[in-house]
Structure formats: structure tokens, C-alpha cells
Amino acid sequence: MKIAILSGNAMSYSTTRLQKAGEYNGHQVDIVDPLHCFIEINSGQPLLRYHGEVMPRYDAVIPRLEFSESNFGTAVIRQFEMMGTFSVNKSDAVVRAQDKLGQLQLLAKEGIRVPRTGFIRETENLKDLISSVGGAPVVIKLLESDQGRGRVSTGTAKSAETIIRAFMGMKVNLLVQEFINEAGGAGIRCLVINGRVIGAIKKAGAERELYSMIHSRGSAEPVRLTQNEKDMAIKAAEIMGLNFCSVDFLQSQKGPIVTDVAPSPELEDIEEVTGRNIAGVVFDHIEKTIAPTMAKPRVTVEII
Fold first, then answer.
1. CATH number assigned to the domain covering 2-89
2. Which of 298, 215, 209, 300 shows the shortest CA–CA distance to 264?
3. What does pLDDT average to over the chain?
4. Superfamily assignment of 116-179 in CATH?
5. How far apart are the C-alpha atoms of 222 and 220, rounded to whole Å?
6. Which listed CATH number (3.30.930.10, 3.40.190.10, 3.30.470.20, 3.30.70.141) goes with 183-290?
7. Nearest Cα to 37, choosing from 83, 1, 2?
8. pLDDT score at 207
């Protein structure tokens, strides 16, 4: 098959791993930078150009968009879909997941536990905002961020107010969330592919990034999820409409609390720590979905 990885970072671990996994399975895999695409909208004849040339037809596309690429990138995914290309994550699902405020609202509506969260645009109600999420310490999260980056915890209400005012003065949109003390500064990240949990790790955050699953090494370990945690992660992915995503959550006395569902999950830590060929399972999913008459996929991964 001919498969495109839609990514603006051709050298990232996740992008190169996916390319190698696809080539190992016998596919032609190209990395396509969405920002160099040109969309042509014609009735009945949608086209994509890449670096000025008409893009060849692809059987499948794997979206891997950074937040800064999401607006135009999702339009490119939609154009692929209009051309009959299978997308591992649909354009509307990527849009839904990239809206971090809307994501929390939708998850909460469907019964998934999320942190108590406040969102305001003016500073006169800061004390009420902090009180509404349980008081200090709180977690402050940038809306325009990827996979847990852009989060900071604060120990006092005064420091929280100072940070919030500073960011709002720069016209930055923030969420303020409750601090889950019993999580002990550690979070769980699990990978969900086609309604199955493929791997999970437990990772300690730095003191000032307690909820963050930042891309750092040496602090992660494999973890076996409970059935309740696996069911929750699968349901969260289903609510977002994502076939391939990471689900980050905290372990609390009330059960798992979801902090983020990411449509372009990082693979390096989870592959290294669990020893699982996550990238290979993505192509397993593609093969089973769009080429059911092909030979059995070469990659077999035990489901935890």
C-alpha cells in the first residue's frame, strides 16, 4: 500500500518509527509536511498539491499534527478523506481532540472523570475560580499545547493568581484545574489503537509539572492497568472518535481521572519501556481496515 504520514517534523522519533514500521511491512510510506500542501476544491475533483506538484493517490494517511499545524492540517486531512483516502484518525475527531476545553466538556458529559476545571477570560474572578477547583495548590494548563506540555502546578493561591494574571496579560488562554494530591506527582499514559489498550506506562513528573507527561527519560516504568482503567481509556478514545491516541490519567481515590486525550501520541517512551512495537500495530490496524484480503499482518502484540 501507499501510505502518507502527515507530519511537520520528519525527524521526530514517532514519525520515523512509523515510517520504518510501514516499510518493514512492505508498504511505501512517505512523510508529508501539511504546511507544504496546497488544497484544490473542485466539485467532484478534490486535489492536493505538494511542493507545487499534484500529490499521488494514497491508500491511507496517518495524521501527526502539532498544535500549531492543527487548523490547516485538519483541512488537509479532510481533503485526503474527500479523495477517498483512509485516515487513521478522522479530521473531525482530530479537531474535537485538539480543542482541550471542548474535550473536557465532552468527556465530562459522557461520564468520564476529569479534573475540576475553571476557565475565564477576565481576571476579576480569580479568587472564585481558584476556590471552585478546590483551592491551592492548583494546576494551570495552556489551552494551546500538545500532550501535557505547558502545564505548571502552584503551591499557593497567591502564586496561582500571579501566574494566571501574567499569562492572561499576554492574551493566553488558560485552564485552572484541581490538584490530585493522592496521585503523588505520577501519571499514567496508555496507547489505544482501534478500541484496544496496547501499552501503558507510569511516569513521574517534575515538581513543577506534576500533571505533565513531558518527553523526558529515566522516570517511566511499565504498568498493568485494572479492567476499570482500560475500559475508561477505551471509552475516552471512543468519545473523541479516535482510532489511534494516547489517554493520560491520574490515579485517585475516586478512580482514574483523565487529563488529556491526544490524537498524535508520542511513541518513544512507551515503546522503549514496554518493549512493544506500537508503530507496527498502527499498520496492523490499517491493513485489517482497508485491505482485509491481504496476508495476515506480520506484527502481533499481546494485549495487556
1. 3.40.50.20
2. 215
3. 87
4. ATP-grasp fold, A domain (3.30.1490.20)
5. 7
6. 3.30.470.20
7. 83
8. 38
203 in Cβ contact with 186 (< 8 Å): yes
**pLDDT (tens digit, 9 = 90+) per residue, 66-124?**
877 788 999 999 999 999 999 999 999 999 999 999 999 999 999 999 999 988 777 77
pTM, entire model: 0.86
What are the tens digits of pLDDT across the range 152-209? 777 788 888 888 888 777 777 888 899 888 887 789 999 999 999 999 999 876 434 4
What is the spatial distance between Cα 119 and Cα 104, in angstroms, rounded to a whole number? Answer: 11
What's the confidence (pLDDT) of residue 299?
A: 53
Q: Would you state the cell numbers that stand for residue 189, as one nine-digit string?
A: 499514559
Each domain of the chain, given as residue ranges in start order, spans: 2-89, 116-179, 183-290
Helix 100-109, helix 91-98: angle, nearest 10: 100
